[in-house]
Amino acid sequence: xxxxxxxxxxxxxxxxxxxxxxxxxSRLMVLSRTQSAIEHRNFGDIxxxxxxGDLLVMNNTRVLPARLIGKKxxxxxxxxxxVPSWNGTKGEWEVLIRNSGKVKSGTRIQFGQEAYGEVxxxxxxxxxxxxxxxxxxxxxxxxFGHIPLPPYxxxxxxxxxxxxxxxxxxxxxxxxxxxxAGLHFTDSMIQTLKEKGVGVAFITLHIGPGxxxxxxxxxxxxxxxxKEWVEITEEVAxxxxxxxxxxxxxxxxxxxxxxxxxxxSEREGRIKPGRGHASLFIRPPYPFRVIDGLVTNFHLPKxxxxxxxxxxxxxxxxxxxxxxxxxxxxxxxxxxDAMLIH
Length: 342
Description:
CATH architecture of the largest domain: 3-Layer(aba) Sandwich
Structural class: alpha/beta
Helix content: 10-25%
Number of domains: 2
Oligomer: single chain
Order of helices and strands: EEEEEEEEEEHHEHEHEHEHEEHHE
CATH class of the largest domain: Alpha Beta
Radius of gyration: 20 Å
């Protein structure tokens, strides 16, 4: 398929720059795959669409304040983004470098009076950095790190982002972006679902550059999907398999959860526990083995994420729904409104 087949027009005014005033108060578009029907609801209504025996699966990754801004010895400003899921040697991290043409291998970046790193192997906007002063990375990020908001949010991170750009179930450090579908859920909403008999289970996918790297190939099949770290415990795999066996629906919260589940699925739809890197690129046509429903946000044109939701609901239905969302003034992207595909 050609990249243009996943394009749509979006007014910049609909790109959410801030979250909703209160968590869980976003709008919800409900999309039926079988009836091609659209409903307009509030996110707090989502329990109406799940029943006892269903299982909601969420990504419990935690976003690190992995954006660091420092200065070269010559005084020039340098902005880097650590990639925490990359396993290098001790004290060495892969980084994305903004304006990398101004940074050469061996460049020392000062982040504070006693905190610095040395960049090496710089190529095409990427490199590696070591922190030879022996400082713990947790201290460095706590003292100098910024929440890595996406580039379409045209502002610096603020104190509210330290809370609102994390899900309420965030537990395991490792992502450079939030699993944004999960941002809508509140503790009370999760409790309501449990009281209704809906199970809630947690997997981990640490979001790295692969989730948001633009597709630059004309034919989408030629796009190389980068690997990201996934962990599914034996207990959670059992919960998912039992839900399938009893006829319950498995609802994935987010595209990251979807990729994790489908990456660790067997041919008959069972989940196998495990941990490791996954690089599954879900695009039409794709035979989903595990998920029966999907909670997701509205995604960028021509992105791997809109391709995933198109694979699940059908490209024409998704593009029609997005056109309807534009007409109705839905808010788009990370801090925007939500969609339930069932």
